[in-house]
Each structure stands twice: as C-alpha cells, then as structure tokens.
Amino acid sequence: MAGIFDGLCAEIAAIPVLTRIGRVQELARGTLRVAGLSAVAALGDRVAVRTAVGVIGGEIVRLARDGVTVLPDQSPEGARIGDLVEMLGETRIAPDDSWVGRILDPYGQPLDGRPLFRGTQPRPLRAPAPAAAERRRLGARLATGSAVFDTFLPLVRGQRIGLFAGSGVGKSTLLARFAQHVEADVVVIALIGERGRELREFTERTLGPHGMARSVIVTATSDQSALTRRRCAWTAMAVAEHFRDQGLHVLLLADSITRFAEAHREVALAAGEEGNLRGFPPSTSHTIMALAERAGPGPEGAGDITAIFTVLVAGSDMEEPVADILRGVLDGHVVMDRRIAERGRFPAVDVLRSVSRSLPEAASDAENNLLADARRLLGAYDRVEPMVQAGLYATGSDPVVDRAIRVWPLLDRFLAELSPEGIHNSFARLAQSLE
Ligand SMILES: Nc1ncnc2c1ncn2[C@@H]1O[C@H](COP(=O)(O)OP(=O)(O)OP(=O)(O)O)[C@@H](O)[C@H]1O
Ligand SMILES: [Mg+2]
User: Fold this and answer.
1) Confidence of residue 47 (pLDDT cuts 50, 70, 90)
2) DSSP single-letter state for residue 133
3) Does the pLDDT of residue 336 top 70, yes or no?
4) Which residue, of 216, 247, 300, 330, has the fewest CB within 10 Å?
5) Could you tell me if the CB of 173 is within 6 A of ligand 1?
6) Is 7 in the pocket of ligand 1 (CB under 6 A)?
7) What DSSP string describes 69-99?
8) Best of 149, 173, 181 to mutate for ligand 1, by most ligand atoms within 8 A of CB?
9) Whether the CB of 172 sits within 6 Å of ligand 1
10) Are strands 160-165 and 186-194 parallel, antiparallel or unpaired?
C-alpha cells in the first residue's frame, strides 16, 4: 500500500510553505512585467497570474532588479495592472514507470482520459548532460527492423542521429517504424508542434498497439503556446533520463527539432533577444545542442539514450540554421528525398547523402566491403540515371555501370524492405541483391 501513497507524499512535501507574490506592473507585446519577484525568481520559473477572469500560467523569461518579465501560456486577455502573480517555482516533473503505454502533455498530465500516477522523484526539465569524461562509448549495433538501417546506416546503442526531410516525405512514418522495431527497453516519443488531428492518427494507425505498448508519448500540438511546445522536448528528455538512470536502454524519438527551435525562437524574441541567425536568436544554438547532448551513452551504471531527431528542411537546404546546428552534435544524419517518396519507395532515404558515424567500427570487414561495393553501384547508377532514362546509355560502355543498371531494381527494393530477422539476415539479403 505504501507505494501508492509515495507519489502523493512526495507531492505534498514539494509544496512550498511560503507563497511568494508579485504584482503585474505592465502589459506589453504579449508579456507581463511583474514587480516584487526579482529577489526570489530564477529564469525559467513558473508563475500563476490571477486575473479577474481566471488563472493564467506563465514562465519567467527575463530578470531585472526592478522587475521580471513573464511570458504567459496564453494571450493575457483580462489581465490588469495590479493583478497578483504567484511564484510556483522551478519546473520539474516526476516520471513514473507506469507511464509506459501512456500519452501525456508536457506538464505530465494524461491525455488519454485515464488517471496517471506521478513518480516519487521530481526531475529538472533542463537537466545537464552526463559529464563527457564519465560517459561510455557508443555501444553495440541495434537491430532496427529496416533493411537500410541494418546495413548502410547502422544505429548503435547511444547514437544520436538526425532525419532531415521536407514536409510529407515520411519522417513520422519512419519514426513509428523505429518505435515498433528498434531493439530498446522503452521508447519515448516527443511530438512537438504537430497538427492536433495527427496525434490520434499517429498513435492509433501509424504506431499501433504494438508500438504503443512500450512507448511514452509526450505531445504539444501546434495550437499550444510556444512555452508548452518547447517544454515538450525537455519533458520527453526528462522521462527518457528517468528510465536511463535505472539502467535501461531508451530510444528517444523527437519529431520535430525544427518545431522545438521555432518555439524557442518565439520565447527568446519575447524575452528581448534579437533574431540574427536567419531569424533565429543566438541562444537557439545552445538550446538545441544542450538538448541533444542529454541523449547518448550514459555514465557507468546507467543505461543509454539512443536518439533520433527529425528536422524539416525546405528543399534540400542542409545549411538552414536548425539543420546546421543539429548536425554538429549528431553521430549521423539521414537525408530523405522527395523524389524517392514520389516514386513510391519508402522509407525515402537517400543513401548516398546519408552517413552513420558508427561505421566502419560497427560492421565487420566483410560487411564494410559489401557496403562499399553497394554504394559504388548506387553512385554509378545515380550518375547515369538521366542517360539511362533517356535511352542514351549504350550497354557495354562501362562494366561498372552495366552492373549498376542490372542490380539497381533489386537494390532499390532492398532499401524498402522490413527486416524482422535481424542484421545478419539483412546483410545476406543485400549480398543476394548484388549477385
Ligand atoms: N512507409 C510508407 N509506406 C507508404 N507510404 C508512406 C510511407 N511513409 C510515408 N508514406 C506516405 O507519405 C505521407 C507522409 O508521411 P509522414 O506523415 O510520415 O511524413 P512527414 O515527413 O512526417 O510529414 P510532415 O512534414 O507533414 O510531418 C503518408 O501519409 C503516406 O502517404
Ligand atoms: Mg510528420
């Protein structure tokens, strides 16, 4: 019985004995200036603004000696000068093992209509990453359930990779495939800034009961405040850290980092920062990197967080700020191409433009040779494809190209395959398609 009350006791213990109160001094440009909290507030603390028409949540985004700036969760309609602002304090969340299989919002409230237990240990949303010197190295290769990732783009335990693609090219569908098939103890999925109707579609259709059974979904839809959307990524990471600290292997899937960065931009601009990185404020870089660094191999005694982050790139603009920042902290990037999706091959991974930094270590010599051969053939086909399509290539001109043209249909089919039988089977099938 004691276990049931542990969460409640922890929550009661966390209630501050003294409530600190400030007052609204000024309302301008969507933010509130509040007097009386400067001495006690810290950046990122939560507050509740008590207006005549209801309570509005908010976060402290700027501090000054004579007042703090609060960004409210919603439009501060109805707020007046002099309204009371109550300090709620540091933003923490207490994940619990029973959250597996559940859907929650970034504040830890259930979104699936059933009560949710809270854990006994509140964790900071913006926890530091494990110290670099204490972290293990990347771990063993993981079976992914997809032929292309089992072979050309291996995923190892603790690796962080990015999926870069335009809209509608199949990022979310591929993430769901990972959630269903990649070897992991728990999957944590952050759905940041998606359209509202997509949540049900994703959980019920794309992910399905099998994927859902080992997943925790944290979601904030596009109509929610920038604070809530940004917080979604941090909450998901804190949930992943909860399981990692128990020694488990967590697969963290974040869709998308672009929406996270956009939410951060909104918050930072409201706090007075300037947008100078093609519209993004300078703190964007640190914010993205600090998030990504929290994933990865854990310290001795803990588990690992293997992470896959999606990034929306317009066209194939890999220099776009969010893509550029994120690439610096990743151990691999996967580029998905609209033209491949349009001809109906899913996942629409452009193998030639994608890399996994776990190679060559993650594969044997024989496997690396096979991959080099296959890449050479894909490259040769890629170069002559327009000529082949136009009927301008004369068979016999180049033996490598001849072979590339012959094996290409098999290779292309291989890249779309599911691989329920594991990595060795995927390599065997790749070897077959090159014969
Ligand atoms: N494996 C697949 N098999 C068949 N069709 C697919 C597959 N993956 C994606 N598609 C098609 O592509 C469409 C878009 O996929 P998805 O929603 O995963 O893309 P997205 O990149 O996440 O899009 P957005 O940028 O809007 O979030 C799907 O509705 C489906 O028609
Ligand atoms: Mg999507």
Assistant:
1) very high
2) G
3) yes
4) 300
5) yes
6) no
7) EEEESS--TT--TT-EEEEEES-EE---GGG
8) 173
9) yes
10) unpaired
